């Protein structure tokens, strides 16, 4: 695959990842204020919610439909026993709600994340902070880009 074709392919992946993360973010913002169904995974402190599972399913099903040859490793599906097999195919690693304990308590320190990697090289990441409704995208060799942030908080410098 030529470097131009590969760059176009990764650009398409990131476009889909951004649209999918925005949809996931909407789900998280709605779910955070609702009553949660919570269970534990490996330890009593390792929590999973129904929203974690639903958001992960949305992300994986959307990406799988668009990129059927890609592989997926989801935090919740892996914890439930799904095997993780690394191949040379592009692999998406998904942590649907980063900060589940905070999410369970409806605290604002929660983000939702989609990470893409291929051949063990981080290609990009889409992260959102639900309380500020901000989404960020990282792309290898391009840096970080603020996708959207309708409510930017400007805080005074300390001592002022």
Descriptive notes:
The protein is α+β, with helices and mostly antiparallel strands. It has one domain (3-148): 2-Layer Sandwich (Fructose-1,6-Bisphosphatase, Chain A, domain 1), CATH 3.30.540.10. 35% of the residues lie in helices and 29% in strands. The chain is built from four helices and eight strands. The protein has a six-stranded mixed sheet. Strands 1-2 form a two-stranded antiparallel ribbon. Strand 3, helix 3 (75-79) and strand 4 form a beta-alpha-beta unit. Helix 1 runs antiparallel to helix 2 (50-66). The protein is globular and about 45 Å long. The mean pLDDT is 76. Belongs to the inositol monophosphatase superfamily. Mg(2+) binds at residues 75, 95, 97-98. InterPro entries: Inositol_monoP_metal-BS, Inositol_monophosphatase-like.
Tags for this model:
single chain, 160 residues, alpha+beta, two-stranded antiparallel ribbon, 35% helix, globular, Inositol_monoP_metal-BS, Inositol monophosphatase 2
Summarize the structure.
With 160 residues, the chain is an alpha+beta fold. 35% of the residues lie in helices and 29% in strands. It has one domain (3-148): Fructose-1,6-Bisphosphatase, subunit A, domain 1 (Fructose-1,6-Bisphosphatase, Chain A, domain 1, 2-Layer Sandwich).
